[in-house]
Amino acid sequence: MNLSELITGQEAYITGISGKGGIKDRLNELGFIKGQKVKAIKAAPLRDPVEYEIMGYKVTIRKADAAAIHIDSTEKAVDIIPPVFQHEGHGKRKRMRGGHQHPGRSRTINVALIGNPNCGKTTIYNYATSSRERVANYAGVTVAAREARLNIDNYRINLIDLPGTYSLKAYSPEEMFVTDYLSYNKPDLVLNVVDAGNLERNLFLTTQLIDAGIKTVVALNMYDELEKSNGRLDYETLGKMLGIPFVPTVGSKGTGLRNLFRTIINVYEGRDETVRQARLNYGQEIDDAIEKIISMVDEHTGHQEGLSRLNAIRILENDASGIYSLSPGIKGRVMDYANRKRDQVEALLKNNISNEVVNMRYGFIEGALAETFTAAKKQKVNISQKIDRVLTHKLWGLPVFFGIIWFVFFATFRLGEVPMGWIENLFGWLSGVSSATMGSGIAGKLFSDGIIGGVGGVIVFLPNIVILFAFISLLEDSGYMARTAFLMDKVMHQAGLHGKSFIPLLMGFGCNVPAIMATRTIDSKRDRLITMFITPFMSCSARLPVYVLFISAFFPHYESLMLLAIYAIGIFAALITALILNKTVFRKTESPFVMELPPYRMPTALSVLKHTWFKTSHFLKKMGTIILFASIVIWALGYFPRDKQIIAKYDTMIAGHQGDAAKLESLRESALLEQSYISRIGKAVQPVFEPLGFDWRMSVSILTGIMAKEVVVSSMGILYQSGSGPGADGITLVEKLRSSRAENEISLITYFGFLVFVLLYFPCMGSLIAIKKETARYKWTIFSAIYPFIFAWLTVFAINQLNNLF
Questions:
Q1: How many Cβ atoms are within 10 Å of 386's Cβ, its own excluded?
Q2: What is the CA radius of gyration of the chain?
Q3: Cβ–Cβ contacts within 10 Å for residue 80, how many?
Q4: Cα separation values, 409 from 161, 390, 397, 571, 749, Å
Q5: Which of 75, 303, 394, 427 is deepest in the core (most CB within 10 A)?
Q6: pTM for this model (two decimals)
Q7: How confident is the model at residue 486, as a pLDDT?
Q8: Interval 241-299: pLDDT, tens
Q9: pLDDT tens readout for residues 502-526
């Protein structure tokens, strides 16, 4: 019987895992080892993937991967290997890597923070350093090292926040990054943050740090939740057994952090009596092979290199990260020995060495916790389980998801209406004041039409953007964002993508740049590249002003549905593109889906405000840089050259009172705009967009939007001679657009096509720079620029043709 056959609610014991490679090793390290009890919790609404409970925590895998895990539902068929551990005695104390032999040599301590995803590592980092790094309640938020410093007791502690990792065995890019950082940067000390509620799984990483011989302090984070569950942990005894100090903390509240950093100082200075070099026993055969590899390296380097037990184990497992640690002069001899010994040991034990090492580590953890940890006698159904009964229900899960998204869009429009009106009135007043005080000269026109018309035309949508960011922050902080990957994995899998790809895509609703960077959390390089290419199809906040402007102008009675439709088209385009890339550029290969659903947490008002402001500040910075610069350039292109004949003609008419002066001035500006440089550019590119029904103003706005999508609205504000609010003529940009549609008899489907084109075409420059940085290849950057334009053009052309047919 295999795990995929286990019915929801049933329990069984693991008897083995078939197959080989990264997915097998990953499942082993996550606790899917012989003898462990596993329970099927729930399947996604589309019946795949499935969430299982093992070692007291929950992990989600696909049925195809679960089919490789063999189980016995009647009895515990295989016992977990009993725990054995040793430590160096006081007379044989082995020096641990990191720190200084002589106390007081330096008062600067470099501390690397590592821990499993969702353990609260970055929360501790933020609280301790008053940093504002992004924190969200799902795996993979931190995708690069971030450094900050704090001063305590006359010591300067440099904290380096590394990506979340389950293991020091490199399966994913972030795990490779952590492994390389510890190997080459050699921090003085490691702060290992563990979730106090998931000790057995979290301490697996701690056992690897023990083997690495790195000075370590463990932060028992979220310790308050362990106490609330009536669990008890003798962390002082556990620390003595492992030779590592354990300090209870509550990172979100700052509880225990001062004690934590004082412990770090004591460990660094060699004053903490808990610290000693513990050693896990992997059995005589494996231990002998480990010691032989270490001695071979020591003899070659004259005991200078000091190969750690962790690297020796990696070499024995034929892990590349261990092999790379060898110097060229000894690599051949060591690998010949390791290859021979591996075959001998595996034949003797009838088990893969990697599996044997994992079993021993979990046996070590189980034994240590058996003496120090008392779980709550009665496990209550926690709040996360109750919420998931609705939000991930097989019938209601997807309707609830789409309902939440619809509500977010509805609130984005409705809650933003009043503050939008205030900003419109403010810029209308500014436009009137500037016209009255600065006149109609070049400076006055630049300020009223260029700066107020351009920047004001975008900033009026600030309330909508703030509201959208606030809702996204709520979804991230609560833990619901991780559920979206669970809900949508089967759909993503049908397109040849990983369920984790859905998280960067959802992040793209805020901004495509960090979403592209977040693809680093996807294990498969192929899936990572495809996700990177399709992320720009997600409707980022920069496009929101365009949507709000055109939907308010032409679809006022269907605002929420229209916005939902635009976002849905972006997701659909992303899935279609993924299918195309799978059939053409990339060969389709299976990518395992393994992820943890974190518990729901109540987002704090401060956290949501911080995240919202962090995202909004980027938008405001654009207002004072890119948008301002683009607005001035667009205004100048629209103002020059000044045709003297047109000016003279209308001046004569105004002087002779041949009509309403204000109307004649408006006609004069329109005539001059038709002869301007920007008009010439628009008319030059219009043949490309004419089959789509776009006039020259729409065509040139698309070109300017390449710099930043908000510039599309700036262009419209300038080209239609209006700010975002009532100007000298008292007409808003929305009203000008409606008037232009009536005058030129443009169909609504054309404006819908324009929205779709803005959604799909050329990514912003920031996204292209991010793609170049992540791929390090110009060919992928060029592809990311050209393909979306072609796709957008063909899509809008097809929309027009279908409209003509029906």
A1: 11
A2: 31
A3: 17
A4: 35, 22, 19, 16, 21
A5: 427
A6: 0.71
A7: 81
A8: 999 999 999 988 889 999 999 999 999 999 999 999 888 889 889 999 999 988 888 88
A9: 777 877 887 888 788 778 767 677 8
Q: Which residues contact 524 (CB under 8 A, 6 or more apart)?
A: 498, 589, 591
- Supply 78's token pair: 């295989």
Residue 556 DSSP label: T
| CA separation for the pair 754, 649 (Å, rounded) | 36
Q: What are phi and psi of 117, to 5 degrees?
A: -55, 145
Beta-strand ranges (E) seen in 337-457 are 373-374
**Structure tokens, 724:** 């975002």
Are the beta carbons of 83 and 26 closer than 8 angstroms? no
144-150 contact pairs (CB < 8 A, 24+): 144/177, 144/517, 144/520, 145/177, 145/181, 150/261
Q: What is the DSSP string of 278-307?
A: EEE---HHHHHHHHHHHHHHHHHHTS-S--
**Structure-block tokens of residue 280:** 């896990």
Q: Is the peptide bond before 49 cis (omega within 30 degrees of 0)?
A: yes
State both tokens at 771: 């793609």
**Distance separating alpha carbons of residues 186 and 209, to the nearest angstrom:** 13
For the stretch 308-319, pLDDT in tens is 899 899 889 888
Residues 50, 61 contacting (CB under 8 angstroms): yes
DSSP 230: T
Distance CA 184, CA 176 (A): 12
CB-based contact 629:709 (threshold 8 Å): no
The Cα–Cα gap between 337 and 312 comes to 12
Task: Kindly tell me if the per-residue pLDDT of 773 is higher than 60.
Answer: yes
- The Cβ-side half-sphere exposure at 397, using a 13 Å CA radius, reads 20
Q: Is the backbone of residue 99 left (phi > 0), alpha (psi -120 to 50) or beta?
A: left
Residue 383 backbone class (left: φ over 0; alpha: ψ -120 to 50; beta: rest): alpha
Residue type, 634: I
Core vs surface per residue 752-785: b (16+ CB within 10 A) or e: bbbbbbbbbbbbbebbbebbeebbeeeebbebbb
Instruction: Give the pLDDT confidence of 442-460 residue by residue, as tens digits.
Output: 888 888 777 887 788 788 8
In Å, what is the CA distance from 162 to each residue of 146, 231, 401, 555, 639?
A: 7, 29, 32, 47, 52
Q: What is the pLDDT of residues 616-634, one digit of tens each?
A: 887 788 777 888 888 889 8
Q: Measured in Å, how far apart are the chain's first and last C-alpha atoms?
A: 55
CA atoms of 767 and 708, how far apart (whole Å): 10
Indicate the DSSP class of residue 600.
P
756 within 8 A of 457, measured Cβ to Cβ: no
